[in-house]
Amino acid sequence: MADKFKKIKATSNAFCRGLRRRLRDQPHLLTTPSTPRIDDTFLVEFPKSGITWLTFLIASVNLQKSGIDRQPTFFAINDLVPDIHTSRHLPKPLPFPGHRFIKSHAPHNPLYSKVIYLVRDPRDVMASYHAFATKLGWYQGSLSDMIRDQHFGIEAWVNHAQSWLTQTRPSVSFNVIRYEDLRSDTAGVLKHIYALLGFTIEPEVIHTAVESSSFSKMKANEDFCTDRNLTLPSDFTFVRKGGNSHKEEISAEDLGYIEQLAGETMKVFGYECHPNEE
Q: Which residue in 47, 75, 210, 230 is a FRET match for 236, CA 20 to 30 A apart?
């Protein structure tokens, strides 16, 4: 009996060592579902580019079309549009559209076959990311320091965007959505996303999704779901008004630094430097 137990333990240890080596040598597996499906659609962004809002919009459409009387909430949004960084073991898809939308912050992952890449003006990303990271204690320095940080700052944004722009194979279904376009024409962009997948969504369904995911309702939803979450700072807020926060929060010197490092990548997405900052 003891010998049998030792053999089982040795086999288990060997499997674990092999798995660790595999994850080390192929890090993209860490951001791939444990049970991948060919019809998975990945919603990818660099952090603080608006993906949470987009997941609420998509969850609302899918719930309505599935005939499920439920609203997306901050407490349970991962049930509806799971976050691959929370768990690789994902729930089954809703009846509509019958496949999974999956949220991801991953740099280029060769195992993703359908990607909606959400991009936002990196100057606004830096301001929003700093406010978020400092509230949670992830980052201790100033906004200027963070902009220059290799892991959080503008260099990381450029590397993330360029990884998808330059390494994505032509066979991958890849589409870029700009956060600014989502703000200015939410209904139109939402219709476009579903059209990419072959669906025509009724105007009333789109309207309900947009209304239920407005800033005021998202803020109320967040306040309700975090009211008794004692793990968060008392003044923490995930929902910000968005927009061009960099104009008030980032110095001219730091804007120049951002545009020096990211200017060429920004132009690919249609973002231009301010004339008085060049």
A: 210
Q: Work out the pLDDT band at 276, boundaries 50, 70, 90.
A: very low
Phi-psi region of 220 (alpha: psi -120 to 50; beta: other; left: phi over 0): alpha
CB 114 within 8 A of CB 218: no
Six-digit token string for 175: 């589409």
Q: What are phi and psi of 86, to 5 degrees?
A: -85, -40
* Residue-by-residue DSSP string for 70-93: ----TTTHHHHS-BTTT-SSPPPP
Quick one: which of 97, 88, 113, 65 has its CA closest to 19?
Answer: 88
Q: Which residues contact 270 (CB under 8 A, 6 or more apart)?
A: 178
For the chain, the average pLDDT equals 89
Q: Cβ atoms within 10 A of the Cβ of 227, count?
A: 7
Element (H, E) at 164: helix 154-167
pTM of the model: 0.86
Question: Are 122 and 154 contacting, i.e. CB atoms less than 8 angstroms apart?
Answer: yes
Residues in the chain: 278
